[in-house]
Amino acid sequence: MKRLADKVALVTGGSRGIGLAIVERLAEEGAHVAINYYPSESKHLAEEVKKKIESVHNIKAMIIHANVGVKEEVEQMVTDIENSLGEVEILVNNAGIAPFESFLTLSEESWDLTYQTNVKSIFLLSQRVAHNMVKKRAGKIINITSTASVLVTSPVIPHYISSKAAATQLTKALAIELGRYQINVNAVGPSTIQTDMTTEMFEDEENHKREIEANPMKRIGTAKQIGDAVVFLASDEAEQVNGHLLMVDGGLTVKAAQPDDHLEH
Ligand code: NAP
């Protein structure tokens, strides 16, 4: 029996990057998956993912368009999923943006859009699915936050960093409020992963090398590893895990800020 057999999952921003890896791992474990996408260019990517996971894993999938920061679109999306796949039992709030702008020139529009996409979406989606989860006394909500929620990982994205800290704290607040209904709310904190969001960073070879050097495991993590963490938190094995931020960062966030070459010997 697969770990998530016949569970209904929704992954926001599921057509590419980390979201895609999460969709693939959930489907591999037997879940039926709704793949949310936003701009219309991503529709064909979402369609390809749907076709692939349906044929390889013999599960049901659907693709669904919505801006996760807009209440009406979120409500319509979840209603459509309920009518097609059933009530959402696993919600993965993955969609996020990180427009690179440093503080002195940061626009109000970027600030608002970042918070709308990275934080308000968690409020809107979690509230919409939580009512059914409360009735069933079961459900898993997993938010993809970041190492940036506890470390200032870059000096040029203060809006992103603070939004991820807010998302992590929101996770903990919801864990307390919804825990009494046997709903688990947790977060996963990736360090840098190679996706469209980090293309620029990886194009710069020096930056790439520094990123590897800074990591205690001397390697960059993968999107699949984030999917593995999500599967664990979505499974019965994580029944008593609530309000936790599971860092998948090679130990980056527990490393002291000092040269570690003396540890080599
Ligand atoms: P990505 O490749 O840029 O993908 C972002 C996803 O978010 C896309 O699927 C995009 O949808 C979706 N999205 C953006 N705005 C949306 C909106 N308003 N409504 C619905 N969907 C929207 O980024 P990623 O690297 O996979 O990041 C995924 C998550 O992991 C984010 O929350 C990010 O902050 C977090 N994270 C990433 C890293 C990293 O190094 N990559 C590290 C830590 C945390 P479309 O495909 O339709 O455009």
From TrEMBL:
One of its GO terms (molecular function) is glucose 1-dehydrogenase [NAD(P)+] activity. It comes from the Bacteria. Transmembrane segments: none annotated. SUPFAM superfamilies: NAD(P)-binding Rossmann-fold domains. InterPro entries: NAD(P)-bd_dom_sf, SDR, SDR_fam. The keyword Oxidoreductase applies. GO terms for biological process: bile acid metabolic process. Its EC number is 1.1.1.47. Pfam families: adh_short_C2. It is an enzyme of class 1 (oxidoreductase). Keywords: Oxidoreductase. The keyword Oxidoreductase applies. Belongs to the short-chain dehydrogenases/reductases (SDR) family. This is Glucose 1-dehydrogenase. It comes from Alkalicoccobacillus porphyridii.
